[in-house]
Amino acid sequence: MAKSRKPEPKEPDWAPGKTLHYLRQQLDELQKLKGRNHQEAKHEEDGWQQFTKNVLIHGFGEASQNLRNFHLARSAGLTNLMGISEAQMQENFKERIEEFEVTLSSSIRELEAMLPEAEIKGAYEAGDEYAFYEDLKGILAAATHDVFVADNYLDTDFFELYVHPIRAGIAVRVLTDQMRGNLPAVANKYATRGNFELRSSPDVHDRHVFVDGRGWMIGQSIKDAARRKPTYMWKSALL
To answer: Can you name the CATH fold of 123-238?
Structure first.
C-alpha cells in the first residue's frame, strides 16, 4: 500500500507591505496584554496567537524561521510534568509576552529591509507646510524601536501632530532648549504611555530626527518648517 505524501509547507502568499501592516497591528495589540493576569487574559491571548500565527504563515510561509521562532516563543517559561504553581504560570505568561514581542519586532525589521524606503520630498518651498508635515509624520509613525528628536523651538502642537501617531511601546526621547508654555504639562500627560523622556539644554541649536538608527537633519524648527521660508529635510546618518 502506497504511503500518502506529506503535504508541502504552505508558501507565503501575502505581499511584504500587507504582512508588515498586520504585524505592526499585532505588536500594538500585544502591548495590551502586558501586566495582565494570565487567566483573565487567556481568551484574548489565544485569539492574538491564532491571528498572529496566520499572519506569519501568509507572510513568510509554514517552513519559515519566523514561524519557528513564534512557536518557540509560545513555549517560553518553565514546565513540569507534575504541574507548576500559579505564580510560575504567571511568570510564564510574562516571559511569553516578552518573547512574542522580540519575535514580532524581528520579523517587522526583516520586512522593512525588504521594502524600498519611502521617498520624501526633501526640499520644501515656503507655504509647503503640509508636505513637510506628511513626510515627517510618516517617518516617525514608521518607528519600530526608538525615536529621538532634537529641536530648540518645540511647542504643544508637536505632540498632537507628530508624537501622537507613534505607536505605543516605542521609546521616545525629545531634547529642546527650554520648556515653553504648556510643553511640560502636555509632555507629562504623554509620558503616562511609558518609554518617554523630555529634556532641555541651552546647547540645543540644530534640528535632528533619529528613528531606528536612521537620521534626518532639518533646516528650520519643526514648528515653523516651510511656513514662511523654504526648508529641507535631508537624511544625514546611519547609527
So the answer is: Endonuclease; Chain A (3.30.870)
